[in-house]
Amino acid sequence: MRFSYVCNDCGTENVTDEVMYTCPGCAKDCDPKEFRKGNLIVRLDERELRELRVKEELSYHDFFPYTVPDRECFPVGTTPIVRPKRLCSSYGLPNLVIKLDSALPSGSFKDRASQLIAAQAIAHGERRIALASTGNAGAAMSCAGAAYDLEIILFVPETAPVNKLMQSVLYGATVVPVKGSYDDAFALSIAYTERFGGINRNTAYNPMTVEGKKSISIELFLQLGRQVPDVIYVPVGDGCIYAGVCKGLLDLHAAGLIVKVPKVVCVQSTRSRAISQAWRTGKPLNVSATTRADSISVGSPANGRMAVRYINQTGGWSTEVTDEEILESQLELTGKAGIFAEPAAACAWAGLRKDAAMLREKFGEEVSVCVLLTGTGFKDMAVFEGRVELPSPIENSVEAVIARFS
Ligand SMILES: Cc1ncc(COP(=O)(O)O)c(C=O)c1O
C-alpha cells in the first residue's frame, strides 16, 4: 500500500521512495534529559485504506506498506487466543482473553516487526540489517534473517541476558557486544549502517518497527469475528509495542472497519516507569530503570513521545505494578492458565489483576478485555531461582511412593 512518513512531533509529511528513519529537524532537537524527538509515523494512503472495508478475505498484510514475500517461510501471526476460564472466574471477567504471541517463531512479539523489516530490506534490495537490542528484538530479527537468508548484525550491551543472546548466535547473527549501555549500542548500530549500508532495525528509529507491530490489533479484530475488545492491556518499555497496537486500531478505524477504538492500557513496572510518569505529569523525562523484567527495563524510552500521544488519543491510561506483582502474575498464569510468560509479558497480566475491580465497576462485568502475552517464560528461567523448589528424588520402591504420599 502507498504511504508517507509523518513526524510525531512537528507533523511534517514526507513522501519518498527512500528508506526514512527520523524527522531531520526534530531528531536533532535533543535534550538528553528528555525522551528523544522526531520519530515517524507511517501514514497509509487513505483511499486504499478505505477500500479494505469491502474486501472479503482480509489479512493484516493488506494493511502493510511493504509486501511480505514467502510468508510461510517465516510464519508470523494467527497466534492463539486463550479464554482462561479459571482466571475469568477468579477476576469476575467472563469476557477476558489472552493473546499468546509467545507462540511466534522466536518466542516473542518482536517477530511482528522483524517480518516487516525483512520485507522492507528485500523490497529495497538490501541483504544486511543492523540493530541494537538487549534481547527479544535481536533474537526475532536473527530468526527472520535465518529464514530469509539475510545478514543480521546485532549490537548488544555486554550485560544483555545470555539466553536471548544465545538464541541470536544460534540463528546465525553476527553479535557484537559493546562495553556500554543499550543507548551506546543503539548509537553504534546507527553509525554502522551509516558507514556500511543496509537497513537499520532499531526499535522506533525505524518507523516500520511500530508498523509491523500493529499487525496484532488487526489480527485480533479478525480472530474475534471482526470485533475489537473494549480494553487491551500492553506491557511497556520503549513504547513501541504500545504504539503499534494503537496504530493497528487507528488504521482499522480509518478504514471504516471499527467505529470505536478500544482503550489501550500501558502497563509498566514501578521500577521502570518513564512513559507512565510522562503521561501522568505531562513531562517527558528520562528516569533510571531497574526492574527485573529485563525486556521492559527502559529509562529513556525510544518511542516515549508517541506512546504518550496514543495513550491520550485512545482514551487509555497507565497502570504501574511492582516487580513482586509481576512475579506473582507469572506464577498465576502458569499455575492457573497453563501459560508460561517471561516477566515483561507477565507485567501486562499484573496490570489487569490490579485493575480488575475498577474495570468491573467502570465498564460492567461484561466488559471485553484482551491481555497481550508478548514473550515466553522459557527465555528467562533464572527469575525462578530461589522461588521454586524442585522435590528431592525418592528411592526406587513402592514403599518410598507410599511414604511420599502418606
Ligand atoms: C516480551 C516483551 N514484552 C514487552 C516489551 C515492551 O515493548 P516496548 O519496548 O516496545 O515497549 C518487550 C520489549 O522488548 C518485550 O520483549
The CATH architecture of the domain at 75-107 and 209-384 comes to 3-Layer(aba) Sandwich
> In what order do the strands lie side by side in the largest sheet?
4-5-13-10-11-12
Overall outline: globular
Instruction: Assign the CATH topology of the domain at 75-107 and 209-384.
Output: Rossmann fold
Spans with pLDDT under 50 lasting ≥5 residues?
none
List the defining traits of the structure above:
six-stranded mixed beta sheet; alpha/beta; 14 helices; Rossmann fold; 406 residues; four-stranded parallel beta sheet; binds pyridoxal-5'-phosphate; 15% strand
Folded structure, characterized:
With 406 residues, the protein is of the alpha/beta class. It has a domain at 75-107 and 209-384: Rossmann fold (3-Layer(aba) Sandwich), CATH 3.40.50.1100. 38% of the residues lie in helices and 15% in strands. The chain is built from 14 helices and 13 strands. It has helices at residues 46-51, 85-91, 111-123, 136-148, 162-171, 182-196, 208-213, 215-223, 240-254, 274-281, 304-313, 323-337, 343-363, 398-405; strands spanning 3-7, 13-14, 40-44, 81-82, 96-100, 128-132, 151-157, 174-178, 199-200, 231-235, 263-269, 317-321, 369-373. The strands form three sheets. The chain has a six-stranded mixed β-sheet, with helices on both faces. Helix 9 links the parallel strand 10 and strand 11. Residues 108-110, 136-137, 235-242, 295-296, 342, 344-345, 374-375 line the site of pyridoxal-5'-phosphate.
